[in-house]
């Protein structure tokens, strides 16, 4: 019988506190709150599909990585679902956020506010120029929201779409959101088979 992991009863965590946790524990630290994500299979599949799409024209010296810890500051160590980072940091964890050229979060049923607001604030303050949020929870179809730093440094929404998304920044990327919707709907329909 294995002993259950008991986490300290803390309200305000720092990256120093994380050093006392098991190294194989997947966690995030957002505004001093420890988050132990437990994504569903669809969430992970969408991350893989998006990483493959990002790889198509990825600039030399950069790679898309899934579920990867990023070093921001003492109270924030997010674990984006997909991030495009410089190859020089791929062997580090956490990797410095300033080596990321694109950060993508995929909303889970329990992460909507965190991904759209709390993490957006953290990434904006860290200077991330390209932050996207993919939302598979919208009934009409998977959506993509593109955030860009505004004049004050806080993010502004510049694109919100459920169509095929094409962009040239930070490099040429195509994300087929209708195909992701079809994939999501396939898994939703399969729920009736269980």
TrEMBL record:
Residues 17-158 form the Putative restriction endonuclease domain. GO terms for molecular function: endonuclease activity. Keywords: Endonuclease, Hydrolase, Nuclease. Pfam families: Uma2. This is Uma2 family endonuclease. The lineage of its organism: Bacteria, Bacillati, Actinomycetota, Actinomycetes, Micromonosporales. Transmembrane segments: none annotated.
């Amino acid at each position: 019988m294995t002993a259950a992991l008991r986490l300290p009863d803390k309200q305000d965590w720092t990256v120093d506190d994380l050093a006392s946790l098991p190294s194989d524990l997947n966690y995030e630290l957002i505004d001093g709150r420890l988050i132990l994500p437990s994504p569903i299979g669809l969430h992970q599949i969408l991350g893989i599909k998006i990483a493959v799409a990002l790889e198509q024209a990825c600039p030399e010296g950069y790679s898309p990585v899934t579920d990867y810890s990023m070093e921001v500051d003492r109270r924030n160590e997010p674990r984006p679902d997909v991030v495009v980072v410089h190859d020089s940091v791929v062997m580090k964890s956490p990797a410095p956020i300033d080596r990321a050229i694109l950060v993508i979060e995929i909303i889970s049923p329990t992460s909507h506010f965190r991904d759209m607001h709390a993490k957006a604030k953290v990434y904006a303050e860290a200077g991330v120029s390209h932050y996207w949020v993919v939302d598979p929870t919208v009934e009409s179809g998977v959506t993509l929201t593109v955030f860009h730093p505004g004049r004050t440094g806080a993010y502004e929404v510049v694109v919100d779409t459920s169509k095929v998304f094409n962009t040239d920044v930070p490099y040429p990327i195509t994300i087929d959101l209708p195909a992701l919707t079809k994939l999501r709907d396939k898994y939703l329909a399969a729920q009736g088979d269980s």
